[in-house]
């Protein structure tokens, strides 16, 4: 048995073990570690066992402990599926986004060195000053959980990991029992038969097309008056079904597995979950170095017979899309400049190709000054990007609340994972909020001077197309 003293990381057996034997080995290691309660110090104890190749998503589907969480990065070289909560950091109170970001980071820092490499997974509200409604019950100002048990794949290395968070000596027996009970309840069997989504019985757009057009015209009037340069308006599409179902079916039946999108899933209680299939990275931080990007400007490929080449040509020659993209790119550079010792922003525009859409994007790498190397600082500067908010930022946030006839909740907000040494957040767009027998789809379109409300409506239709394809394929 190997153990890192500083971070309390225990590897019971360096050999790769089948998952059922891995569970037994982990149980034994937990008993051994907690045998002498008096010798234990408060902190996080991580037990990690190498296992053979396994599908984290299908493993997650078989488990029945909540919350259930799932993350896959855009490059698909890191996947995490987790169940239960060994530790949780959350806040449910109105206030500024900055307050939420600072609360998360300061609480994590106070947990000490034993959590240095532990990844807490969760998300924020888009605008914590926005009045919330019952649609988003269970999704507070922010919530991040450290799974009790998780299956991870990182650079083709598979691990089954348990977390034991000890606050004091009196909590050892209770926390140990909680963890061992979770291991006892693990389903380590083979894949079960795949379920299908039930029949869809209704679709309602909020706003409807008439109100959407009116909202867009109000936004365009702001551009003409010179008070705004860009704003992203969103739509909620309510899907009703004949019966309830597991939200994980959306992940299982996602029809474009090779799409370069993040997969984010947060299910705080059974059959109630927020899901995002987003192409947009907010940032990745490793120490003082962050990788971020501007992603704005969209081409619908349906009329181009799915041609990547023609989509690229259209985007790279579109004055409107290049101008929209420029607002995002310039804002990111301007916001990062005061806190960075160096910034490398690509000059050449790239095109990110998805199955149905293509987007302009530009990568940016920055080295943070030591005094500004904090995720709360980076989150406060980058969220919301002009791609999901607007320019100017604060005015856009207010206009969004005035114009949109629904609450954004976690939609278009930072979602991902955070640790002491690193973090990665996507922007939670192309998303769904599932509640038993209904699903709310969220997507939006960026408006600038010259935008056409009818074309923006069609863009939103295309952006929810992947999830709508799941409902039709499962019918």
Can you tell me about this structure?
This protein has helices at residues 19-33, 56-61, 97-109, 172-185, 209-225, 248-252, 308-316, 319-336, 375-382, 393-403, 453-463, 465-474; strands spanning 2-4, 9-11, 43-50, 68-72, 78-83, 87-91, 120-124, 142-146, 149-154, 157-166, 200-206, 230-241, 263-269, 272-276, 281-286, 289-300, 340-345, 350-353, 357-368, 390-391, 414-418, 422-427, 431-435, 438-448. The chain is of the alpha+beta class. It has two domains: 2-185, 4-Layer Sandwich (Anthranilate synthase); 200-474, Anthranilate synthase. Helix 1 runs antiparallel to helix 4 and helix 3 (97-109) packs antiparallel against helix 9 (375-382). It is globular. 44% of the residues are buried.
């Amino acid at each position: 048995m190997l153990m890192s003293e500083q971070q309390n990381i225990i590897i019971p057996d360096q050999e790769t073990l089948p998952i059922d034997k891995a569970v037994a080995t982990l149980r034994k290691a937990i008993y051994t570690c907690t045998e002498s309660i008096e010798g234990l110090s408060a902190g996080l104890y991580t037990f990690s066992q190498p296992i053979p190749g396994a599908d984290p998503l299908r493993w997650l589907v078989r488990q029945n402990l909540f919350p259930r969480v799932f993350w896959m990065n855009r490059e698909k070289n890191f996947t995490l599926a987790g169940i239960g909560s060994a530790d949780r950091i959350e806040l449910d109170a109105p206030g500024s986004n900055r307050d939420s970001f600072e609360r998360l980071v300061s609480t994590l820092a106070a947990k000490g060195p034993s959590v240095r490499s532990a990844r807490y997974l969760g998300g924020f509200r888009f605008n914590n000053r926005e009045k919330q409604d019952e649609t988003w019950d269970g999704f507070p100002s922010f919530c991040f959980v450290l799974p009790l048990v998780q299956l991870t794949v990182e650079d083709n290395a598979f691990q089954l990991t348990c977390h034991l968070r000890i606050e004091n000596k009196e909590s050892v027996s209770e926390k140990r029992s909680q963890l061992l009970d979770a291991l006892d309840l693990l389903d380590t069997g083979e894949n079960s038969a795949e379920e299908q989504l039930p029949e869809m019985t209704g679709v309602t757009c909020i706003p409807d097309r008439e109100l959407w057009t009116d909202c867009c015209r109000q936004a365009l009037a702001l551009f003409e008056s010179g008070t705004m340069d860009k704003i992203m308006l969103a739509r909620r599409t309510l899907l009703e079904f004949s019966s309830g179902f597991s939200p994980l079916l959306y992940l299982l039946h996602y029809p474009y597995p090779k799409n370069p999108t993040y997969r984010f899933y947060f299910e705080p209680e059974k059959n109630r979950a927020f899901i995002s299939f987003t192409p947009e990275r907010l940032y990745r931080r490793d120490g003082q170095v962050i990788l971020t990007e501007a992603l704005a400007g969209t081409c619908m490929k349906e009329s181009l017979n799915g041609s990547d080449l023609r989509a690229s040509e259209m985007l790279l020659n579109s004055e409107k899309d290049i101008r929209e993209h420029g607002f995002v790119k310039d804002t990111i550079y301007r916001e990062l400049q005061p806190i960075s010792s160096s910034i490398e922003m690509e000059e050449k525009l790239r095109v990110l190709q998805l199955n149905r859409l293509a987007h302009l994007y530009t990568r940016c790498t920055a080295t943070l000054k030591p005094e500004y190397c904090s995720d709360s600082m980076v989150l406060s500067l980058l969220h919301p990007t002009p791609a999901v908010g607007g320019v100017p930022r604060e005015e856009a946030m207010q206009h969004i609340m005035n114009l949109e006839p629904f609450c954004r909740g976690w939609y278009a907000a930072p979602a991902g994972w955070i640790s002491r040494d690193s973090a990665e957040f996507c922007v939670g767009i192309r998303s769904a909020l599932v509640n038993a027998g209904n699903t709310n789809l969220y997507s939006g379109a960026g408006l600038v001077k010259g935008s056409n409300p009818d074309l923006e409506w069609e863009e939103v239709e295309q952006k929810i197309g992947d999830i709508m394809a799941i409902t039709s394929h499962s019918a």
